[in-house]
Design a protein that fits this description.
By secondary structure, the chain is of the alpha+beta class. It has a four-stranded antiparallel beta sheet, with helices on one face. A two-stranded parallel ribbon has the order 5-6. Strand 3 and strand 4 form a beta hairpin. Helix 3 packs parallel to helix 5. It is globular, with a radius of gyration of 17 Å. The two termini are about 25 Å apart. The relative contact order is 0.15.
């Protein structure tokens, strides 16, 4: 279970709190949708949940373990995030970008195992990206890039997946 306890967060010390006294819990497999106007803290909350941001006070625990105490590699095996604006990483093919999702599982030398390669093939097929696998990320549309970033998150096979506007650029056939 992912638990948020008494979260307070602001971007600058003298600014008002964007999140104030927030507490809730999410069970593995549970689906929750956050709705709200632009600028109300939805993306900020996801940043707090995945450890990209640190709260002014409060904790995030997963099965009783404080996530801030875990190394980033271990946290990445538990929580994957798809951001609302896909990252621009020049020179990467679609398949390479999806393989980056397996980074927490790769050897110290960064060499993918047969298991990693198979996981990437499966997710490319599932999200209908196989025909794009050799294409440079810079050649993709916004919707295609978003599907690649979703594939990179799904290929980790984490118990928790955080989606921040994952279908904003997607065509109707590929919306979740």
């Amino acid at each position: 279970m992912l638990e948020v306890h008494d979260h307070f967060f602001r971007y600058q010390k003298k600014s008002p709190f964007l999140l104030s006294g927030l507490s809730f819990e999410l069970k593995e497999g549970e689906q929750v949708m956050l709705l709200g106007a632009n600028g109300t803290g939805k993306s900020t909350l996801l940043g707090l949940l995945n450890g990209r941001l640190q709260p002014d006070s409060g904790t995030v625990t997963l099965n009783g373990t404080d996530l801030s105490s875990l190394p980033a590699r271990d946290r990445a095996k538990l929580i994957a995030t798809v951001h609302q604006l896909p990252e621009e990483l020049p020179g990467f093919t679609v398949a390479e970008m999806v393989m980056l999702g397996r980074t927490p599982y790769l050897s110290r030398l960064g060499n993918p195992s047969d298991t990693d390669s198979e996981a990437v093939r499966e997710i490319l097929d599932l999200l209908e990206l196989t025909t794009l696998s050799a294409r440079d990320m810079r050649q993709l549309s916004g919707g295609e890039r978003q599907r690649v970033m979703l594939a990179a998150a799904l290929v980790r096979k984490t118990p928790y997946l955080l989606l921040d506007g994952p279908t904003a650029a997607a065509d109707p056939a590929h919306r979740i």
